[in-house]
Structure formats: structure tokens, C-alpha cells
TrEMBL record, chain A:
It holds the Pfam family Alg14. This is UDP-N-acetylglucosamine transferase subunit ALG14. The lineage of its organism: Eukaryota, Viridiplantae, Streptophyta, Embryophyta, Tracheophyta. Keywords: Endoplasmic reticulum, Membrane, Transmembrane, Transmembrane helix. The chain crosses the membrane at residues 67-86, 106-124. One of its GO terms (biological process) is dolichol-linked oligosaccharide biosynthetic process. It comes from Aegilops tauschii subsp. strangulata (Goatgrass). It is found in: Endoplasmic reticulum membrane. One of its GO terms (molecular function) is N-acetylglucosaminyldiphosphodolichol N-acetylglucosaminyltransferase activity. PANTHER family: GLYCOSYL TRANSFERASE-RELATED, UDP-N-ACETYLGLUCOSAMINE TRANSFERASE SUBUNIT ALG14 HOMOLOG. GO terms for cellular component: UDP-N-acetylglucosamine transferase complex.
UniProtKB/TrEMBL annotation, chain B:
It comes from the Eukaryota. Gene3D superfamilies: Glycogen Phosphorylase B. GO terms for cellular component: UDP-N-acetylglucosamine transferase complex. InterPro entries: Glyco_trans_28_C, UDP-GlcNAc_transferase. It comes from Aegilops tauschii subsp. strangulata. Residues 53-148 form the Glycosyl transferase family 28 C-terminal domain. SUPFAM superfamilies: UDP-Glycosyltransferase/glycogen phosphorylase. This is Glycosyl transferase family 28 C-terminal domain-containing protein. It holds the Pfam family Glyco_tran_28_C.
Amino acid sequence: MMNIVTELQKDRFTPRYYVAALTDNMSLPKAQVYEKSLIHVEGDRETIIENAEFMQIYRSREVGQSYITAIATTLRAILHAMWLIIRIRPQVIFCNGPGTCIPLCASAFLLKVLGLGWSSIFYIESIARVKKLSLSGLLLYKLRMADQFFVQWPQLQQKYPRAQYAGRLM
Amino acid sequence: VIDKEARRLYIMDPIQTSQSLEEKKLRNLSGYFVFHFMLWWNGEDLVKPICAVSGNLNLQVEHFTFLPSIADSIREASLVISHAGSGSIFETLRLGKPLIVVVNEDLMDNHQSELAEELAEQNHLLCAHPQTLRETVEAMDLHALQPYIPGEARPVVALINEFLGFPV
């Protein structure tokens, strides 16, 4: 994800909200380090600090969690995601694979369908996915929830023709 | 053909790989070229046996649970043996180091082997299973590996900008 963010023109995509799972301890610090580095480059401390927010959301299902308890946790995740979407009203959503993105994309997509908001949803499948899509990717692809769906290997693009292949990010 | 120049064996996150490195295999590795054996993991009960064995073999073992940046360690290595995580793989390839990826499907919860297998097919790294690690090390020809040219986000970002109506 940070490969994408560093390449984006920041003034086009601002303010930025970084969302990670509650049990993920590594992703947000990476984003925080990057956003902090922007302060030094551009020098305008006030503006840059306001341009980034970091939040954590409930995961639908932890790795290894039983599918029965996952029903309740998924519901909680959906409600939390819906709340975030309504509060933030993002115009653009970038997601890269974890199950955390599904409730967010679904909420944003629902708002779109109801005419209550408009988010362009960009999904970038993990580079570790060479021959098969992840479950998140499969859901977003089949349900056509993403406006643009990127894969990082040509084999996947052949298998899923509505996906786009524009090289690898790493 | 064994790389006689290789002096440092760096094993990353070997909860999976270390279980395959019984004493016999460690002994075998040290016979060739290992002077320094770094380990990175979470389990204290795994550290002790490895350290005990390495004492006999003149291996230096370093272990840590988390290192913010392993780039420096990788840079010092002549060979890296890693699990199949995409982060480990690409960090090593980016630094231009020879890499053997150990794929252990019994312990993996993701289909991470796809990435290692694809890159092995393209000759950017060597792939092994815990059972075949020894043969792989014995038979490896690191000079046959192709350098990996890192990808970049610019083409994807260009398409995103185009979609949103920004000037590219």
C-alpha cells in the first residue's frame, strides 16, 4: 500500500485516512513514519499534520477464528465500517487485500447504490497472489464492487479479464 | 558448486525453517561455509536447541524477535535462507542477495508458496522444502540466479489518476 501512497501526488489526495485492523501492529506505524517524513519535505507543519488520520477497525474474522463466532464479529465489523464511511465520506478508497477492507468497501458501495455518497474504489491484489485471488479480491471482483481492480501478475489478469495488470509494485 | 566465498548464513523467521534444521543439517551447513547463523523468531524453546547444537559446530547464533530493519543484516549476508513471506523475499531480492526460500505448506496459513515458486521459475531465487533444504544447499549454483529488477507503482498510479480524471 505504501508503494502506492508514496507515488500519489499528495495535494490530489488529501486528507488521508489510514485504516488498519485492530490486531495489526505493523501497518499504521509504517504509514505514520511516512506521513511524518512529508512534514520535513514540505515544511508546513500545520497543514501536513491535519492531512493524515490513522484509525483501526475490527476485523471480520481473525486468522484461525471459528466461522460460527465469525458471524457476530463480522456484524460488528460491518457496523464499525459503516460508521467510519458515514463519518469520513471518502471520495477515493484504496485497499490492498486484508479482510478488513471488505466491510469498508461494502459500506461505501452500499452508499453509492443508495445515492448517498460516491467513492471510487481501487483494489490492488497482493503480490503474493500469482495464480489465485485472495478471498477479499474474489468477493470484490465477482460482486463488481471495485471501480478498478489491479493484479500484480499477468496470469491473474488472464484468468480475471476485468482486472488490470500494470506491472508489479515491488 | 558451493559458493566458497559465502561466510554468513542468515536465516529469517525460521519457526518453519528451523524445525527442518536438525543437528544433522546444521552440521552439514557448517561444514561448507557457515560462520554466522542469525535467527529471527518468537519462541524461546526453539532458541535453546539451536544454540546448543551450534556450540559444537563453531556457529555463531544471533536471535531476535523483532528487528525494525533487517536490511543491514541482509546486506552483510552472502546467502539468505528465508520463509516464503513476500516482505522477506522482496527485501532480499531488492538488496541483490542470493536467496533460498523454504516453503513449508504444513505450517503456512496463506498460499505464500505461489510467489516463491513463480520467482524460482524465473530463476530469481531457489525454492526448497524443509526436507530438501540440504540437497538444495549442496547443489546450489548461486551464479545462475538472475538479478531481480524491482517493480514500481508508477504505472498503477497513472491508471488511477487517469480514471479519476487527473492529468497524468
